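#lab-general

N.A. 3:47 PM
ok so I finally got the sequence cleaned up, no stray characters, all 256 residues accounted for. can someone with queue access submit it? mine expired

B.Y. 3:52 PM
send it over

N.A. 3:53 PM
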Amino acid sequence: MQAAMPAAYISRTSKTACCSTPSRVLQRITRKAKAWRLLFKCRPYAGVKKSGKHKPVEESEDEDAAAAEAQEPEFDPIPYQRLMEQAVEHLMHELSGVRTGRANPGLIENIPVDASGEHMPVKACGTVTVRNPQLLVVSLYDAGLGAAVVKAIRNSPLSLNPTNEGSEVLVKLPRVTKDTIEKMIKLVAAEAEGAQQSIRRARQKGMEAIKKAFKGASADDKKRTEKEFQKLHDQFVADVERLTKMKDAELREHVS
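B.Y. 4:20 PM
back already:
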């Protein structure tokens, strides 16, 4: 009977992104930051009160331009866009730590090893590679470090049982069960909901800023800005949904 994946195996400390596609999504959105800023910049809406006195054309035009600029409402979406980006980035980090039964060097390479009183990570003791989906191999730089590496991995919270093969340390990973996968899927859903809540809060703050900036301004300009800001919000929500579906599919591939 295959052992269930230990809870500690669902690592939440990995710095590796769960996939490259979301990173490109964020880069694409960031590159559009200036475009968003220009898109949200509103047209002058208030005229200049006319007086009965005749003024030179140049002076009148200068006053009109200055008055229009002073009364032009502006809304900068960048601070709220950044909050949404942070929500997606946090989700990516959290999902990268939800591990399946697939071997990944990042699982053990940073485990601290006590080698004759000197502390160093596993990756400093040898090269960590994947021999097959269920087996990690530490090719030691010094065979004398084998016992220390085995002890460090065995005593880690991962509940793994490595073996010392002289110049190599073999780390076999247990397969996950269906119940473990279901728990992971629920965890992914909870993380996704947290990200969406953060994005909704950023949207709410942005809408409040628009309302304040457009107080007394053109209703059409206000509505147009709200519509464009909603598109920005929807884009990030779609990114969260895409990440969640990808992770869900990845987890279901490894049901025993």
